[in-house]
Design goal:
mainly alpha
């Protein structure tokens, strides 16, 4: 039994030495590759770290380490750019004519018993519900879970088995649809 433990420790040390050598050999080239494709240094460093973290967790043999590292880096860059393209619910609303953002959430979440505010809140909720009901079920669920329930995409992906990028895409389509459907309401509320 002692021999098996020793073999595992030796293999771990060997793997650790191999990864350290790979990091030393490829860090500069990978960082240069990543920097050319992302907007800032912090993102580039995060992506580089993610690539090496994936290497560390990889259980499969890698035949072409250079190709593997650059492919993973390219995929991480693509994933990051997709994540930055998500449209929050605030993006459903527009700016006032003077360029100032409209404080829609203040109006809609106002608990006062002002009849106009009550009417606007009811109108918005009804319009939103109708627009959500027009969506395909997968888009509707992605939007509701992430935006309304506040559940991170990663958690939704872990629970459903649906890839994060698919969830992001579904939410984006939902937001685009909702924007269109709420544009008329926006026009009516613009002068509130």
């Amino acid at each position: 039994m002692m021999a098996a433990d020793t073999i595992n420790i030796q293999m771990s040390e060997s793997k650790s030495n191999s990864i350290t050598a790979i990091v030393k050999s490829y860090s500069r080239r990978l960082m240069g590759f990543i920097r050319k494709r992302v907007a800032n240094e912090a993102d580039a460093e995060d992506i580089l770290q993610d690539v090496f973290y994936q290497l560390l967790g990889n259980k499969e043999p890698i035949d072409q380490i250079t190709t593997w590292l650059f492919t993973v880096a390219r995929n991480k860059i693509t994933d990051r750019s997709r994540k930055k393209q998500t449209v929050p619910m605030d993006g459903l609303f527009f700016e006032a004519e003077d360029g100032e953002p409209v404080e829609w959430m203040e109006i809609l979440m106002d608990n006062s018993s002002n009849p106009e505010t009550l009417y606007l809140r009811t109108l918005f909720r009804e319009t939103l519900k109708e627009a959500l009901d027009e969506l395909p079920e997968d888009q509707k669920q992605a939007f509701i879970l992430n935006e309304m329930d506040g559940i991170p995409f990663k958690q939704i992906a872990d629970e459903t088995g649906i890839p994060v990028n698919t969830l992001i895409s579904r939410k984006r389509y939902a937001v685009l649809h909702l924007r269109t459907k709420l544009a008329d309401l926006h026009e009516a509320l613009k002068n509130y």
